[in-house]
């Protein structure tokens, strides 16, 4: 696929394209001399023009509209730094959707204040998280800890015999250092931590777990796995890699393996909310929230057959922070698994969250886009941490857990006080709405 | 919380604030005369100014920076239609993050072409989906069907005795029409379809399922539940509503109940990919993909203990389309549950997806923001469908399923052909990256 | 397979075999004139002889032993009513294992006393259940309710097109009465209640749920499904039944569908344990048990990724009663799913269990064997209930739930009081044991 | 509870009781001078008499019957070795239920023949397993491997602060050897292998995994945990053990943790079934079984939301072998989790099972009862293996996996050939049945 682009885009051609009119270029796309998806590369570095031309083609050829104003005219694309996007973050670009960003907090966390930027279109979410942060701050702040760290990738390989399948499993135990060396030869930061094997027939599903510095790490680990499998193949030649990702990873799908083994950062956080704060700020009682937590977050989720969904709305906060900071929003699926625990300690309320698979990075992917990176800077954890590699991504994970705790506190208090309905109705709905 | 805003914002005050300088207003926020979160209401309709002032406060008081340029200076906020956001979609606004939008397709689906707008920062995702669409189109397009429809909400109530708990369950069966009438008195479009009860101690978890027109429907159903519970309380007076949402719903958490019972729209889709297309466009063989689907999407996910995650990367496509069209990205958690089935039929390949809980709306929430609504218009399903209420939201769900199928096809083919690594490496990584 | 037996066992042959010596018959088995598994039929009605001869063959030909006494000499087989077993409950018979039966209770349940026979080899289990029953009785007994009833079976069928697969799903909704009539034409007692369809590719998984009288009902429903599918095939001729059981049932496997939809009998039970009883009989406090229930049965099971395992040891009690009463012990897998809820009400303790899939019968299978049937008689619910068909099997389910509650109460109290270790150590272990 | 027995049973008393009439003793039970459950100890070693007297009391006082023959008269109790039961395996003894034992196989496994004793009342089960064994033997037998071994127990402890909870987790990593030494000081055979911690609030759930020799090992590990926690408490004094078993173990409940981490023995097994055998013995085709395995054991179970239930009927075989050999039948819940994989290799069929949590012992519990032990002897793995501790229990696990494979093969072939219904109907049903 990419080869054809390469052919179409020799530098001579690029020169000549710049001098052609938009209409001429559109004709070349129609006649397949330029690929529709190849416009950016054909017109580089004038990405605005490439996008403008694509929009024109979409408007005329793909999605014609009878409306006075074509929908695309409402999608902004100008004054944006497209060279950070092209070839890295998006293809067939039409423009961008603006997602509103609100700020909750700052939250007093591990002894210092952190801002909580959230990109969302759900009314009340930022306000609610903000209220939770305030209640936590009034009670002295919260604490977090990172219990485990490791991005995972699970290739699935196949061999020719039962004995060889067993041999693959044993090799990972007996020659771990050899595979580790191969893996780490591909990366400056990555450190292979473990390989967990599961057999099904003559397939072996091999879950690699690795420290990946400040990157979320999926690409780093994929490269490392590829190399390690090469070494394994030298010893067990019949191995065929069916896929570098065999879903035992598990990426972007609900799974117990991430809930139990962790993926990315495994974080816990807690805060003790003073009785007074519960009653005066959150307008309910400690006993009511403790009881509701059992009824809703434990029993309700248990009746629903949930694995890892023992919380009120962790995904709301995770999704909003992920979009604001350029994380991968599809990873909200597993990053938002969370058990919220609420207990009475003395007269006060102990609140905590257990989040075993927060997948975040301070570099790579969407974190490199200017606005998203700015939000990481606002949180104090953008880019690679030169002194302590990985510390920035760990801090993002901690902040996410802290923010989730704010969201849990506020929503649980809202439910306990009985004003779920009113809050949403006020903030999110127009009288004329359906 | 909202009352204090009201007090602070009488119209007289607003007048006078407009004439004050930014610095004076900042002082009023510092002295708590104006609430930090109340700036938009205090300065309405000059939301740009409200946001500018908040940014100033964040820069000076909350997140001071020693850098030459403060991070917030990189976050855009001007030239945006904030009155669609304030009071509905976001609070404590700082600006917006632009999320790049690419277009995949159009996909030939149910006999007509549909565009697939995707907002993403993951390199290769749009290109991959586009390639999948092309392969499907070359094979004659795809078909979809909506098997079931119903947004759900599950209040948890408590009673004083075992007998009353049983009575609640029986009442929902025996007097369903009465509860339905109460529910539907609160809404023009909503139709209550069923109530499913589960008991735990003297709690009853009542899962309401309702048709909600073109809205995703969470607020509509919450209001209806509230009313129905009021009627129930007339007959079983000891009922106490512990929460209008008791997690048996289940919203934004992984759960088997949604996988098995459905939530939102339950959609299936299929396409038959010609042998030639598999080999020439996708560069692999039918047998290889069929086999890989078993190894990865069935066995791998089964070994991982997944409920509903029997797919390659449905969440990628769902998240990208949800962000592009203003859906709730936290609902990607359950909306992306999907079983991808791949079988050989004759010499060709039968591809299908089973997606029981796609939660989407054509009105409400983020779908009302201009750019997001434009993307729905591009897909031909924005706003309430006057002729056939619900048809627009159903169409969104179908398009999502169709797009997921494109993504599955392309990625599975990529895995089967062994170029996962190379595709990601080329598109997503800078040579200098970690 | 069975045909060869038929051939080997014409009545003339049987006559002649009776007059042959054991050694001659052994020779005929060795020379394959009589099938090893056909001995009972060959020598009927002298089953003792058939078994004795088989034991001889096993001892000499299959499992010779150098020990002075062959292991089989320790397995009893005489003085047993084998005609109830042959052709119905077991094949290739060697004898029987005696499983010790203890009695717990009687338990005061729904206003009358019921005995709890338990067949077990786990020390302390009967004593513990007995203690739980005593505590419940001292507090006034317990209450049960059956919320739902229906054995399930889910054939998987395949069709030739997407449209036909959809048609299968729609047919089940639109023509339910037609399928119901076909189903019920095969059975005196069975009543089809619902059909729930799920699609995967061009397969439809159809979960039939039916009332099955006093039988556990698997065979009854299988026969009914077969007939209903025949009728369906008349309308959608391309249907092929891949299997009468496609695992969406789900039988004898852990599954969320049974937990959420129920299978067999869905029962809840509760008891209020007086504060005094908790303290004096169970030697702990209400607060301690309530707290432990959250820590262990909710949080612990949630961390473990359990679907339906929110209890202390329901399976112990279920297995013991199933073996005692001739139920299918493989169904303990799903019959033991249970959520144990413990709350404080006033000063007392509210204990309850939610058990959605208790699969039991009062007739059929092992319930027809004399000792097992005697245990059902002891419980007052053996055989078909002539007046109210199904009432006996419902009562078994209620008693199982009541017994589980006794077991939960006692074990939870034991844990809360800290003597798990000591109880097991005393009862179950020899000083010389490993 | 046990203390009162002790008081009632001084040796003097025992003397005198022996000389009393049954009626006198019954009076003493009625007047609570002898506890109902204390009869065995009161009359030791005349256990027959104790049981006879208890039966009398049950017949007259607890479960009087108007029938001509009391149900208990049908429950055998004489001629049984009660001293192996009393104080170890059962309390409140009434007698025993005989469970019919059939033999399947022998199965050619790992190069030698093993008999498969099964205790069951389900018609066709032994015959079906036998048929599977025959097909495997005709194809050259099967292979097994044990991938992992470790019984688990997860105490839940609580501490006074977040920092201490973290400290507990860290201590298990940093001072594992210290805890291991403490654990192993309590046992001759047990070897602590790992401790896996999960936090929820200020609770830590600590999953200990240990080699337990030839014992199933629950008691051994409980004792070891208790000791290790004692050592931990010396370093983190605020620790309170809420329970020695906090369900993160997980024992006798469905759970993902056992499916993913294993419990007891993790075994895989495979056999290649020749095309000819599939067609002539099993009466179906390789392609049909391969396809059905995907439809039923993968897709059907996936649609059902199963964790670990990707098989046809593993629990049937596991339950039957567990009852025959004195294993704990409540552990069938997790011991029967199994993924059955069926693939085509060349023209033949590759069959395999993945069973990560087979919990079995060759000593202890019901394995010490004469008949059950005899069945272990028949399999060649009774009692502690002196030369290689643990080898006997490992062999039991391998045989269970092999037998499960036989059962899977036969049932899948039966389904594929379409005769599920007929087989069950013939074997299990009386014409007059319901």
Automatic annotation (TrEMBL), chains A, B, C, D:
Pathway named in the protein's UniProt entry: Metabolic intermediate biosynthesis; (R)-mevalonate biosynthesis; (R)-mevalonate from acetyl-CoA: step 3/3
Keyword Transport in annotation: no
Topological type in the membrane: Multi-pass membrane protein
Domain of life: Eukaryota
Gene Ontology MF annotations: hydroxymethylglutaryl-CoA reductase (NADPH) activity
GO BP annotations listed: coenzyme A metabolic process; isoprenoid biosynthetic process; sterol biosynthetic process
Any one GO CC term of the record: endoplasmic reticulum membrane
Annotated SUPFAM superfamilies: NAD-binding domain of HMG-CoA reductase (SSF55035), Substrate-binding domain of HMG-CoA reductase (SSF56542)
Alphabetical UniProt keywords: Endoplasmic reticulum, Membrane, NADP, Oxidoreductase
Top EC class for this record: oxidoreductase
CDD domains the record matches: HMG-CoA_reductase_classI (cd00643)
EC number in record: 1.1.1.34
Subcellular location: Endoplasmic reticulum membrane; Membrane
Catalysed reaction, written as an equation: (R)-mevalonate + 2 NADP(+) + CoA = (3S)-3-hydroxy-3-methylglutaryl-CoA + 2 NADPH + 2 H(+)
Family: Belongs to the HMG-CoA reductase family.
Protein name, as recorded: 3-hydroxy-3-methylglutaryl coenzyme A reductase
């Amino acid at each position: 696929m990419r080869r054809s682009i390469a052919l179409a885009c020799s530098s001579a051609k690029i020169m000549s394209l710049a001098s052609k009119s938009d209409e001429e270029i559109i004709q070349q796309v129609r006649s397949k001399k330029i690929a529709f998806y190849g416009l950016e590369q054909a017109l580089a570095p004038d990405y605005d023009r490439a996008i403008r031309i694509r929009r024109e083609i979409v408007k005329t050829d793909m999605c014609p509209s009878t409306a006075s104003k074509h929908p695309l005219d409402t999608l902004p694309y100008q004054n944006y730094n497209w060279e950070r996007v092209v070839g890295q973050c998006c293809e067939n670009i039409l423009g961008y959707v603006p997602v509103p960003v609100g700020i909750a907090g700052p939250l007093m966390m591990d002894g210092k204040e952190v801002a909580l930027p959230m990109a969302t279109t759900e009314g009340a979410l930022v306000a609610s998280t903000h209220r939770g942060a305030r209640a936590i701050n009034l009670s002295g702040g919260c604490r977090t800890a990172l219990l485990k760290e490791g991005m995972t990738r699970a290739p699935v390989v196949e061999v020719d015999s039962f004995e060889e399948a067993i041999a693959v499993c044993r090799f990972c135990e007996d020659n771990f250092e050899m595979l580790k060396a191969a893996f780490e030869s591909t990366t400056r930061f990555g450190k292979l931590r473990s390989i967990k094997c599961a057999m099904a027939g003559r397939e072996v599903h091999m879950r690699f777990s690795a420290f990946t510095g400040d990157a979320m790490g999926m690409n780093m680990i994929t490269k490392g796995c590829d190399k390690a499998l090469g070494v394994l193949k030298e010893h067990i030649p019949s191995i065929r890699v069916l896929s570098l990702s065999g879903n035992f990873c598990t990426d972007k799908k609900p799974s117990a393996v991430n809930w139990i083994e962790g993926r990315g950062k495994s974080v816990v956080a807690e805060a003790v909310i003073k009785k007074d704060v519960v009653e005066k700020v959150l307008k309910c009682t400690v006993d009511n929230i403790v009881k509701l937590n059992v009824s809703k977050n434990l029993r309700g989720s248990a009746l629903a057959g949930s694995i890892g969904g023992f919380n009120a709305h962790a995904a709301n906060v995770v999704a909003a922070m992920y979009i604001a900071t350029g994380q991968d929003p599809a990873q909200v699926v597993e990053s938002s698994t969370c058990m919220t625990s609420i207990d009475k300690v003395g007269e006060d309320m102990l609140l905590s969250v257990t989040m075993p698979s927060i997948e975040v990075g301070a570099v790579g992917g969407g974190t490199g886009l200017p606005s998203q990176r700015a939000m990481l800077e606002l949180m104090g954890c953008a880019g690679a941490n030169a002194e302590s590699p990985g510390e920035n991504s760990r801090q993002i994970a901690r902040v996410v857990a802290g923010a989730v705790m704010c969201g849990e506190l506020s929503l649980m208090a809202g439910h306990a006080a009985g004003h779920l309905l009113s809050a949403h109705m006020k903030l999110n709905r127009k009288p004329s709405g359906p």
